Amino acid sequence: MNNPYLPDAYKILDIKKETQIDYTFKIAYEGALVGGQFMEISIPGVGEAPISICNYDDSSLEMTIRKVGNLTDQIFNLEKGDTLYMRGPYGNGFNLDHYRGKDVVFIAGGTGLAPIRKTIDHFVNNPDEVKNLEVLIGFKSPKDRLFIDDIDRWSEKNCVTVTVDQGDDSWTGKTGLITTHIDKLDLTNISEKIAVVVGPPIMMKFMLFELIKKGFKEKNIWVSFERKMSCGIGKCGHCKIDETYVCLEGPVFNYTTAKALID
Amino acid sequence: MGYKLSPLAFDYYLKALRNTYRIFAPVLQKGKGKFAGTDVISYGEINSLDDIMLDRKSYFSPKEVLYPIRETLFYFLNDETKAPAINVKPILILVRPCDLNGIGKLDRVFLNNGQEVDFYYARRRELIKFAMIECVEGFDTCFCVSMDSNVANNYDMAVRFDEDNITVKVVDKSLITKDLTHADTAIFEPAFIQENKVKVTIPEVDLVTKKTFDHELWEEYTSRCIACGRCNTSCITCSCYTMQDIKLSDDKKIGERRRVWAGCHIDGFTNMAGGHNFRKKNGEKMRFKTMHKINDFYKRFNEHMCVGCGRCDDVCPEYISFSKCINKLNAIVREETLHE
Ligand SMILES: Cc1cc2nc3c(=O)[nH]c(=O)nc-3n(C[C@H](O)[C@H](O)[C@H](O)COP(=O)(O)OP(=O)(O)OC[C@H]3O[C@@H](n4cnc5c(N)ncnc54)[C@H](O)[C@@H]3O)c2cc1C
Ligand code: SF4
Ligand code: SF4
Ligand code: FES
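^ thats the input. predicted complex w/ FE2/S2 (inorganic) cluster below
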């Protein structure tokens, strides 16, 4: 009998410091993945946690991890060449077919950029697959910015807006809450435009409210949820909302489904 | 096949079965009750008829026999992980029909929900056979009839306990020992309770709306429920758990990952890193549990989760009654539907 709880050891190929508290871990991995899926990663004896896959190729995957507690503190002590335990991938991830041929805006708050990074990258690299591509990203401050090189590369040919809640002396970019920048998007085609929104619960709440107010159609909005998860496989019950298991049917939901879910 | 046995003959039969099976039944645990000096009835391994406690309902359900409160998932040593071996001697559990149906609900989650089968549950489940205790009277808080779980047919054996004899119907031939072939045969079909003192009406699944979720009914439970989680731990159908890692040595990589029962009524069940949690008020927790038991589980599996064993009513220190909650909810839903 297969034991889905047993994790395997994987080698850390590289560690990139994005911010003081967010590191991207590149891990040797072969297997089919979809951007927005997650892995249960662990250090035996310390703990296990769900982490989004933010990038992958044929022989590796990347995860950007924020140092917030027990397990993530210990992960930050690991070095290149060390092993990390993983099981997965879990969840549905972003289905590219929902965005192909469309006018799409990806909206991310803070670490919410991690789960959609790969999907944005795909459309930046395959511009013919979408009608129009825009990206709107909000960070708390300039020093909280993630994937700076990627964002620069995306900005070369696309409309990418980065805003910070609070600037500093050297910041020359945009400031203000992410919701205040919706007006700067190309809204000419709003009833057809697709929005993909990922971020902390409070940002999602206000962003969705604003998008609907502006005229986005509910069925054209996609979100990714974060919930407490222990198992990732529909058994532990922590991620359940009504009859929906976020780990199984999510974390990516169409807003028409998401709005009906009551925690 | 049916057989009629004297208590003594039944004990010989149990003894013979114990060669092949570990037998679990409700037993009295002396001094382990809620208050000092009181007893509690829970499931335990038995040797003889005298060990079986039948005149009161068990405080804890039989679920811990197939789903332990705390279970090691695997040990690790350096880079190796290894699931612990378990006692593979087959198990026979004496259960009432409600609990037998309740185990069917655990099966839905552990065996059928999602793509994966729960390895740990499945390997114990395979060892288990059921001896159903005929139950025609029930207890004060039971509402199994309303929940359609008074009748169960998937038993391997059924047992009727009378004052001076015990009648068994054996479905699984491997449970027939020579002690039975020497006994009197009898024609025996277990009867089932047809009416409980407590009755509930489940609101029609599709009539429960967002309005029902927002109803002030739940506020009442915010002021009454203390989030102790006893209703979860005693419930035959509650199956949630949390992982826990334990390190046995700092320098060497030796330790284990466990899972322990968790409950949606207990604070912290939905806490995420960063401190965000989704159901702070205890009334919201009550609402979540209620909907799971009698509304959303149905949407997923086409059967209600709650089997009406009434244990959550028995164990609640705040005297919160789940059956009353269901009936109040039904009245509210009817009211709401009338005003549409
Ligand atoms: C689908 C999904 C995808 C995710 N993707 C990512 C990702 O890509 N990158 C990422 O960094 N994270 C991601 N997360 C979040 C990540 O799983 C958590 O940050 C991780 O579980 C933290 O584990 P820890 O052991 O380090 O923290 P813990 O030690 O469990 O907790 C850390 C923090 O939470 C607080 N906390 C914990 N328990 C409580 C409590 N009971 N009450 C109040 N506060 C409490 C602590 O004070 C502490 O500050 C994702 C989560 C999900 C569900
Ligand atoms: S919810 Fe209460 S009555 Fe229903 S199965 Fe659980 S303990 Fe029994
Ligand atoms: S047993 Fe009663 S008080 Fe305790 S969590 Fe359940 S409903 Fe609340
Ligand atoms: S994470 Fe355990 S059920 Fe979804």
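Chain B has two domains: 2-71+84-186, 205-238+264-338.
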